[in-house]
Amino acid sequence: MALPRITSPHTKGNNRTQRVMLTVLAATLPGVLVLTWLYGAGTLINLAWASIVALSFEAVILKLRQRPVQFFLRDGSALVTAVLLALALPPYSPWWLTLIATGSAIVFGKQLYGGLGQNPFNPAMIGYVVVLVSFPVEMTTWPVPHSVSFTAGLQHILGIASLADGWAQATALDVLKVNKSLTIDELWANPAFGHFGGIGSEVVNLAFLAGGLFLLHKRLFSWHAPVGMLAALAIMSLLFWNGSGSDSHGSPLFHLLSGATMLGAFFIVTDPVSSATSNQGRLIFGAGVGILVYIIRAWGGYPDAVAFAVLLMNLTAPTIDYYTRPRTYGHRKAERGFKLGE
């Protein structure tokens, strides 16, 4: 009888995959609640639809690969990918956009590499980049907070009708990127801006910060990658911050509280599979993400850059691991003894 080869982590123990994934899902609740308060049922619909798509694609691919379907569906990894991706997508995203993003994340970001633990790239970011590159208008247009009714939002999701004028807007990062003439003070009169970052996004970022601190308290990951990313982003934005002129790229506080900064810092760069493994390596990995986020935001072609930055640093993770390997205890002593024996 052929036994299925199932790699660690296993189903037993305090740190089993299912328990870890459920804890991560619990940590996203503050962000989910704030997004729902701001945009209504749009975020909840994204979450429900993305979860159904992710589990369906996961089951089909596992069946084709002749792997135990129920065992891998129960580990919760597909559900975490779906939730993180749904939270990154604009509320009331068209159903086909969520379908393409989630399907790409599961198939091309995870299962084609062999499943959980073998993917070199973050699956959620793979799905996000696929739809961002393919459908930039839909991905950079967010509803105005507290403006879209459930009926209008549902019609937009199903493709029956578009959001009415005044119900959708560009993000603050996008407005800042295309600005050529207005000062920062003049830009702040734009409805896309809030107090420190984009309207709504500053509160959302604080909510994900709270969830991330909860995960740190639970010791699901170390502080190195999040601190590395946030510190590097803050330093870069401080170094290149030229006040409130029309050519300003925004203050450190603006960059920390806009876009997907906190979601990326605590839920994406902390991925144990596609990130570096040592503490020093995680710090370098996170700092690299923070630097790339600012470079792409300020001088690249896309307003937000967390997904691109993470995927680029995923490519460097093996090299970072190679140069930051912790010293093996007794290794130098053994080498010295071997040379004396010669």
Automatic annotation (TrEMBL):
It comes from Stutzerimonas zhaodongensis. InterPro entries: NqrB/RnfD, RnfD_bac. Its cofactor is FMN. One of its GO terms (biological process) is transmembrane transport. The modification FMN phosphoryl threonine is found at T171. Its EC number is 7.-.-.-. One of its GO terms (cellular component) is plasma membrane. Belongs to the NqrB/RnfD family. The complex is composed of six subunits: RnfA, RnfB, RnfC, RnfD, RnfE and RnfG. Coiled coil: none annotated. It is a multi-pass membrane protein. The chain crosses the membrane at residues 20-39, 45-64, 71-89, 95-113, 125-144, 192-216, 223-241, 253-270, 282-299, 305-323. It is an enzyme of class 7 (translocase). It is found in: Cell inner membrane. This is Ion-translocating oxidoreductase complex subunit D. Part of a membrane-bound complex that couples electron transfer with translocation of ions across the membrane. Keywords: Cell inner membrane, Cell membrane, Electron transport, Flavoprotein, FMN, Membrane, Phosphoprotein, Translocase, Transmembrane, Transmembrane helix, Transport.
